[in-house]
Hints:
The protein is mainly alpha-helical. Helices cover 37% and strands 8% of the residues.
Amino acid sequence: MPAAYSPVTSEIVTALEGICGEEGVLFGNAKQTAKYSHDMVTDQRYARDPDVVVLPRSPAEAAAVLSLPSERRAPVTQL
């Protein structure tokens, strides 16, 4: 049975950087992404390290970012 979601690949990261620029995509650096591992619940039992964090600067970037995971069956969590 195939996985429900696809993993984040370097191709996806490159596409996200094409939308938001390299500075708008955090990937591969646990120190940078750690603060995005949870919402207002601070209990670490519920924290999960994100595969990638994307910081769009405009509604157009946000729309483009959200269409990408949909096309590739990658999950999205918003904070």
